[in-house]
């Protein structure tokens, strides 16, 4: 590791030292280190800036944080939508651990993809957060890779991205397997999985758990791709999921989507659980007060929030990016939306 010294060995290197060595304006160095996606320079110049930063041992994070200590340190947590109750436990866990470490947590929504990029770049460039935790699938992978090349750590929460972005996820596959096994043990054989949006690693992990449970039981998987994680999306794809009257059970990849699915099933004359058993991934207080109360698989979201801050603190302490799978197991909460399969009586001749 390079020692923290300047070109003349008498003082710590400055932003201007880096800029002079590269032959660019100091503002260019600052924008490179803060992963400003609006900066128009060649890849060769960007790589040269980062190489000189390493050679000189320039540490922008330490300097910026030292200047801010008179006020407070902050971490940014970006959610797809702050109104979704699924994300509440993540916020609680992250906020508590951040407070213990002397940080405040700034919440933001990544639902508006058009403004997200500029907002992130501004937060980092102005030094208003020491790190970003991104729990929003609406943020493009390439943007996160760009941001991760800056000085501030970027962590993907419950999402994995190929590249240098650190990540932490819960065991979605185990949760999906548990949910599907519950339906199989109740006697159901025609079980459809209403998944999340295609091409997301979260969706893929849940599909893998469902398919594994079905294959182990000698059953044929059937997957209907959802358009999102909310009730409206679940309602929109329910007709496709319920196309075959022989379907007796659904595993839905998200509790809010499951609520939309159940509403659509009722509109089509399918009673839950008499005609159709439904189990959803994630739990929320709304599950107990829904009619019927919804059977769910609870994932350790509060622990995920806490552990994500732990990972950020590790990065701020000089640790390298890494991918973490949270070991806490999922938990099945059986309520009124699932019941043993009752075969229709055979017709007399």
Keywords:
elongated, 2 domains, Rossmann fold, disordered N terminus, six-stranded mixed β-sheet, six-stranded parallel β-sheet, 349 residues, alpha/beta
Give the topology.
Elements: H1 15-22, H2 26-33, H3 43-56, H4 60-68, E1 73-79, H5 88-100, E2 103-109, H6 113-125, E3 131-134, H7 141-148, E4 154-157, E5 166-169, H8 172-185, E6 191-195, H9 201-216, E7 222-225, H10 231-241, E8 249-252, H11 255-267, E9 277-281, H12 285-289, E10 295-298, H13 301-316, E11 323-325, E12 331-333
Parallel strand pairs: 1-2, 1-3, 3-4, 4-5, 5-11, 6-7, 6-8, 8-9, 9-10
Antiparallel strand pairs: 10-12
Helix pairs in contact: 1-2, 1-3, 5-13, 8-9, 10-11
Structure write-up:
It is a single chain. By secondary structure, the protein is an alpha/beta fold. It has two domains: 64-170 and 301-329, Response regulator (Rossmann fold); 172-298, Rossmann fold (3-Layer(aba) Sandwich), CATH 3.40.50. It is built from 13 helices and twelve strands. It has helices spanning 15-22, 26-33, 43-56, 60-68, 88-100, 113-125, 141-148, 172-185, 201-216, 231-241, 255-267, 285-289, 301-316; strands at residues 73-79, 103-109, 131-134, 154-157, 166-169, 191-195, 222-225, 249-252, 277-281, 295-298, 323-325, 331-333. It is elongated and about 80 Å long. The termini are far apart. The relative contact order is 0.12. Residues 1-9, 62-72 and 345-349 have low confidence and may be disordered.
Residue stretches low in confidence (pLDDT < 50, at least 5 long) are 1-9, 62-72, 345-349
Q: Total number of β-strand segments?
A: 12
Q: Helical proportion? A: 40-55%
Overall pLDDT confidence: 83
Q: In percent, how much strand structure appears in the residues?
A: 15-25%
Tally of separate domains: 2
Distance between the termini: 84 Å
Biggest sheet details: 6 strands, parallel
Gross geometry? elongated
Structure class:
alpha/beta
Can you count the helices?
A: 13
Q: Secondary-structure element sequence? A: HHHHEHEHEHEEHEHEHEHEHEHEE
Which fold name fills CATH's third level, the topology of the largest domain? Rossmann fold
CATH homologous group name of the largest domain:
Response regulator
- Write down the CATH class of the largest domain: Alpha Beta
Give the second-level CATH assignment, the architecture of the largest domain.
3-Layer(aba) Sandwich
Question: What topology, given as strand order, has the largest sheet?
Answer: 2-1-3-4-5-11
Which radius of gyration do the C-alpha atoms yield? Answer: 24 Å
């Amino acid at each position: 590791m390079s020692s923290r010294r300047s070109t003349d060995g008498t003082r710590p290197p400055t932003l201007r030292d880096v800029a002079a060595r590269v032959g660019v304006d100091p503002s260019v160095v600052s924008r490179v280190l803060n992963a400003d996606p609006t900066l128009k320079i060649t890849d060769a110049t960007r790589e040269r800036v980062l190489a000189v930063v390493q050679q000189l041992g320039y540490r922008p994070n330490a300097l910026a944080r030292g200047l801010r200590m008179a006020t407070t340190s902050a971490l940014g947590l970006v959610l797809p939508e702050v109104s979704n109750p699924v994300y509440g436990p993540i916020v609680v866990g992250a906020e508590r651990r951040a407070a213990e470490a002397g940080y405040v947590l700034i919440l933001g929504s990544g639902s508006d993809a058009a403004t997200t990029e500029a907002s992130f770049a501004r937060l980092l460039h102005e030094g208003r957060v020491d790190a970003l935790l991104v729990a929003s699938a609406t943020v493009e992978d390439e943007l996160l890779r760009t941001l991760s090349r800056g000085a501030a750590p970027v962590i993907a929460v419950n999402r994995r991205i190929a590249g240098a972005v650190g990540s932490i996820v819960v065991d979605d596959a185990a949760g999906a397997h548990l949910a599907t096994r519950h339906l199989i043990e109740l006697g159901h054989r025609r079980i459809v999985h209403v998944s999340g949006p295609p091409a997301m690693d979260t969706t893929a992990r849940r599909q893998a758990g469902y398919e594994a449970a079905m294959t182990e039981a000698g059953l044929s998987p059937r997957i209907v791709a959802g358009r999102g994680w909310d009730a409206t999306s679940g309602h929109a794809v329910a007709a496709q999921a319920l196309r075959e009257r022989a379907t007796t059970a659904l595993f839905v990849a998200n509790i809010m989507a499951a609520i939309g699915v159940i509403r659509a099933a009722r509109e089509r004359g399918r009673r839950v659980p008499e005609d159709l058993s439904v189990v959803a991934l994630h739990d929320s207080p709304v599950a107990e007060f829904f009619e019927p109360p919804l059977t769910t698989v609870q994932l350790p979201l509060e622990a995920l929030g806490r552990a994500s801050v732990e990972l950020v603190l590790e990065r701020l302490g000089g640790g390298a990016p890494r991918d973490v799978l949270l070991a806490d197991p999922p938990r099945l909460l059986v309520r009124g939306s699932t019941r043993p399969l009752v075969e229709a009586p055979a017709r007399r001749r």
